[in-house]
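Please complete every field before forwarding. Incomplete forms are returned to the sender.

SECTION A: IDENTIFIERS
Entry label: holo-500
Bound molecule: adenosine-5'-diphosphate
Molecule representation: SMILES string

SECTION B: INPUTS
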Amino acid sequence: MSAAVLTPDAVRAIDGRLERAGLLDPAMEIAGLAVARAVQERWPSGRVLLLAGGGANGGDALVAARHLLAAGREVTVLARPATHPLTRLNRRRLRAVGGEVRPLTPATLGRAARDAAVLVDGLLGTGFRPPLRDDLARVIGALNAARTRDLNVLAIDLPSGLDATRADVPGAAVHADVTVTFIGPKPAQLFGDAAAQCGEVRTVPLPVPAAWIQDVQVAARPDDATLGALLPVRTASAHKGTAGRVWIVGGHPGTVGAPALAGLGALRAGAGLVTVHSAADVPLVTPELMAQRHADLRTFLTSTGLTGTGARPDAVAIGMGLGPEAPALAREVLDWEIPTVLDADALQPDLCGYGHDRCVWTPHPGEAARVLGVPTPEVTRDPLSAARALQDRLGGVVVLKGGPSVVARAGDLSVARGGHPGMASAGMGDTLCGILAALLAQGLDPWDAARAGVRLHARAGEIAAVRFGYGLGATDVAHDLGRAWADLRAAPLTGVYAGV
Ligand SMILES: NC(=O)C1=CN([C@@H]2O[C@H](COP(=O)(O)OP(=O)(O)OC[C@H]3O[C@@H](n4cnc5c(N)ncnc54)[C@H](OP(=O)(O)O)[C@@H]3O)[C@@H](O)[C@H]2O)[C@@H](O)CC1
Ligand SMILES: Nc1ncnc2c1ncn2[C@@H]1O[C@H](COP(=O)(O)OP(=O)(O)O)[C@@H](O)[C@H]1O
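SECTION C: PREDICTED COMPLEX
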């Protein structure tokens, strides 16, 4: 099963269809009820202060207030003038059951917050466009000041002041403990500083036909069952030559660890034979790894490479610590048109146009910015658009790494789940490259290898964090790949092989 990532345009398109079908009112009722339930479950006692803006986000807050009142909670409702017809309707419905609605100002908010245990932020949702008007900025300032005095904050759909499409925080914005969002997450809830302001994000489905969501989703977010099913299992008759032959091309004096880590990642992701080809001496981090030092790596790749007597690789990973020769060497390998992962020094603007359908490019935001010729914050502010632009230039499949990573192929985006900041350490990306090459060598197509490989890497990071604690290294993560594999396939550790 997949959860859709939506933008405000997508939400508006769905709203339009709901409205034409006469179903927007029940959708708002379900949204508001879900908010009331979240409050009840998380903070079952104390007065609830609800803030309602003029749009549909405010309408959700007014519905929530009605349900909380019906459940016997003490509520205070402060509202801006209603502009959305359903918000006006729900104001009347609230009053009809005895709810009082008073005007919202920084002063009324400050006073009401003093005897509230929970604040529900229904000021601005997906309809907000920065810059924030001063009157609202003052209200948000008063809200955040009240939160520092022990008030719990639940945001409806999106903390007010965040732009749903952006990963940065454009100005004054609410800090929430919990965000209850509808149908699917928005980019602001997944990426960067914006996501950090959302607190715990709960997604509530609304009764919207799946086809409508499919029509407008900007990215998928496949779950572990979907991705685990993509992972290969060795047949009973497998031998090392059929289990995937990987070449790692990387390393340069001073950066010889990178290809070694990629090799370790490839082995632990199930490749049968892994060889590191380098112009430098690469440390054998594990004796199963083979290493060949070449006085002239380019000559090896052009003359010996694929045409040599040795068995040809099923997949190549190139670029890790490879140094300034990387683009020229990568071009040689790209000419072979075999499954290829390109990372680090092989991620250069002059390789745009050289990609093919069997490539996977793995930039982090800095490398992505270099390829696109833009400042790095432009990439991190909107990783979905950046991933799309990178794929457009480089071809094949792009993994824009981060927390979380975005995988792109022509016309398709997928946002990864899991991983954690403990993975922000040198060498983690090298291990990922090895994993991706191993999956390609075992027969996965680049799109499946990238989506499943990114999740496998992140899952191994989650398991390694439990085992090793703080200060995680890339080798720790590589060692837990076998456990992560079993976990994602929902198989016991021995059951990852056919016939066991
Ligand atoms: N399909 C779904 O998922 C469903 C979603 N639903 C809900 O609908 C919400 C979207 O509602 P929406 O479109 O009415 O917009 P919303 O977020 O309330 O913002 C409009 C308000 O913002 C204000 N405003 C704007 N810019 C501003 C600025 N710069 N500075 C200051 N103010 C500014 C603007 O003020 P105005 O300009 O009108 O004075 C107006 O009052 C969505 O988040 C979800 O909660 C559910 O109800 C049902 C199904
Ligand atoms: N905060 C985070 N949350 C989840 N994953 C992260 C986080 N920080 C880094 N990672 C993951 O760790 C890896 C880091 O890769 P990269 O920056 O290329 O490292 P290196 O070049 O040192 O090998 C990526 O796969 C990235 O997705």
